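tool=predict chain=A
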Amino acid sequence: MTDLIQSITRAFEAERASHPGKVTRADQLPLTYEDITPEWITATLGGDVAGAQAESLELGPPDVGSSSRRKIRVTWNAAGTAAGLPDRLFCKSTFELPNRIVLGVSGGAYGETVFLRDIRPLYDIEAPECFWAGYDAQTINSILMLRDISDEVVSFCDHNTPMPRERAESQVRLLARVHGQGYGNPQIRDAMQALPTWPEFFKRTEGFNSKTLANNGFLAAEEVIPARLFARYEEYWPLSLKSVEAHNHLPHTISHGDVHLKNWYVAGNGEMGLGDWQCVSRGHWGRDVCYAISSALTTENRRAWEQDLLRLYLEEMEREGGPRVSFDEAWHHYRQQLTTALVWWTMTLTPGDDLPDMQPRDITLEMVRRLAVAADDVDSFDSF
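tool=predict ok
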């Protein structure tokens, strides 16, 4: 990983040293949000509309995490307004060096660009709509300009968001559509070949020393991990690798990869929507389903509903074009795939020096608790 980080860092520094300043053409990528001009917005978003011109823009406050996020309000001239060109944007970028390291090593910047630019338009789902995407494979500089849905969303979720059964059912229906059409729609199948497989994606995270981070996080979370599961610590990483390797022998579809509750929102129509596609890959459906159910629900509701939700998922997935899968087979995959869902959060608890603190500690501990209790309840470690 050191060589890759150094390469990304050198490219970043060289780019900054020759910083061209303001951008005005669609073939240019800005290096900061302040580089964006009305001329660039016109070139990227209004080029197909005769006479359209962005007259001004207003930047919202910075919001930095694994990506650098910012809202932009655009004022269009009469031609642009009449054509309905987007005037409220939500942007995600890798303008900062930590963004490029995290999303360059993992491949997340590339994967999210491919999904939102090329694959998302093939789906009718509640998920971000991308107006324009730019990505430089050499520098890992990127920007996604998405529809700002702030006014259309009832709430962006976190671990305190109420999740009655109808919302949980909405989640599994959305996943069933993503996965089922990923199996059955030839256009989606062709487009998703540009994405890495889940084992390939996971392998790249080893550049962050994921084994050490996951194990350290597991030990640091003893207070929220059931004693029976915690006592089997030595099995944790080896079984996680087995759950990843299983995807090499299972049929692939589009896998979101990080379906914890904070990546969901409640849309104005009451349905659940799914954002942040930075971990998208080609993989088996099992990891998304067990991860979503176990991280979204309280332990009590998950225990009461999870098998019914899995049955609903299987029915909907087949209806959307996916294969027919028996409950027993599905339950086997559900149990096995909980191990790497848990890895994603024990890594987050102890991110080390090369990763930013991506989540507050209280949220991370709650996600670890929910996933660890689920893994213990279904005897995940005994499913291999």
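The longest helix spans residues 327-349. The CA atoms of residues 275 and 312 lie 22 Å apart.
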